[in-house]
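Try this one yourself first.
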C-alpha cells in the first residue's frame, strides 16, 4: 500500500514540479533600470527575461486586434487589462523551453497580481525591487532616445502617478510576505548589478525543501 501511495504521490509531485516554473518578479518605477539589470541577470544566472512591456509593444507591432487598445493605454501610461498581459506571458513561458523566469514590469497592480496567481497558480520565489528617486528616473527616461512613445514628459508623469498609486501596493503586498529584496537603483549600472548578484547568490544557496512523498507518508 505504501508503495502505491508513494508512487501516486511521486507522480502527482512530479507533474506539479514540471508545471511550476521558478518566477522572480522584477519591479520598480519607470526608468529604474529593470530591463538593464535583467539583461545582466540572464547572462549570469540562466533565467529567461520576460518584459511585460516588451511583449505588449511586440503585440502592437504584430498588428493584432488588441494592438490599438494596447497602444492607447501605453501612451496614457495606463495598465493594460490583466487577461491580455497574462496570455502573452503564458505564451512566452510555454515557448521558452526554460523553467526560470524574470518577469519584468508585472504585476503592476493588485488586480494583475491576483489574476496571475489565480490563472497560473505561480507564486514568485522573490521580488526584486529597484528603488530609485523620481528625478533620476525622469532624467534616464528623457535621455533614453529609443523612440518609445511613452518617453515624453507628459506620459512619464502619468507613469509615475500610476506607479505610486497602483504598483507600489503590489510591492507592499509582497513585503508582508517577506519576499521583497530591495535594491538602491540610483547607483551606477555596475554598482546596482553587484547588489543584484549578491541577492541571487543568496537565494540560490537557500535550500528549498522538496515537496516529497516522504513528508506525507
Ligand atoms: N539606465 C539603466 N540603469 C541605469 C543606471 N544604474 N544608471 C544610469 N542609467 C541607467 O533603463 C532606462 C534608461 O536608463 C536606459 O536608457 C538605461 O540605459 C538607463 P531601463 O533598464 O530601460 O529601465 P526600466 O525600469 O526597464 O524602464 P521602462 O521604461 O522599461 O519601465 P516601465 O515600467 O515604465 O516600462 P514597461 O515597458 O515595463 O511598461 C511600459 C507601459 O506598458 C506601462 O506604462 C503600461 O502602460 C504598459 N504595461 C502594462 O499595461 N502592463 C504590464 O504588465 C506592463 C506594461
Ligand atoms: Mg523596461
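Now uncover the answer:
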Amino acid at each position: 500500500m505504501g508503495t502505491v501511495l508513494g508512487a501516486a504521490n511521486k507522480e502527482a509531485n512530479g507533474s506539479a514540479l514540471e508545471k511550476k516554473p521558478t518566477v522572480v518578479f522584477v519591479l520598480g518605477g519607470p526608468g529604474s533600470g529593470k530591463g538593464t539589470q535583467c539583461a545582466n541577470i540572464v547572462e549570469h544566472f540562466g533565467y529567461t527575461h520576460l518584459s511585460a512591456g516588451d511583449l505588449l509593444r511586440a503585440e502592437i507591432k504584430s498588428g493584432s486586434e488588441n494592438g490599438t487598445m494596447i497602444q492607447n493605454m501605453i501612451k496614457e501610461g495606463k495598465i493594460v487589462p490583466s487577461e491580455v498581459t497574462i496570455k502573452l506571458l503564458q505564451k512566452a513561458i510555454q515557448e521558452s523551453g526554460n523553467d526560470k523566469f524574470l518577469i519584468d514590469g508585472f504585476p503592476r497592480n493588485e488586480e494583475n497580481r491576483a489574476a496571475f496567481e489565480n490563472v497560473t497558480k505561480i507564486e514568485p520565489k522573490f521580488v526584486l525591487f529597484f528603488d530609485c528617486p523620481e528625478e533620476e528616473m525622469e532624467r534616464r527616461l528623457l535621455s533614453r532616445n529609443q523612440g518609445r512613445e511613452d518617453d515624453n514628459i507628459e506620459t512619464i508623469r502619468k507613469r509615475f502617478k500610476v506607479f505610486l498609486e497602483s504598483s507600489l501596493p503590489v510591492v507592499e503586498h509582497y513585503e508582508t510576505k517577506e519576499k521583497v529584496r530591495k535594491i538602491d537603483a540610483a547607483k551606477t549600472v555596475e554598482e546596482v548589478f553587484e547588489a543584484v548578484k549578491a541577492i541571487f547568490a543568496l537565494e540560490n544557496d537557500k535550500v528549498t525543501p522538496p515537496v516529497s512523498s516522504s513528508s506525507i507518508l
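Discussion: The radius of gyration is 19 Å. Confidence is low (pLDDT under 50) at residues 1-17, 212-217.
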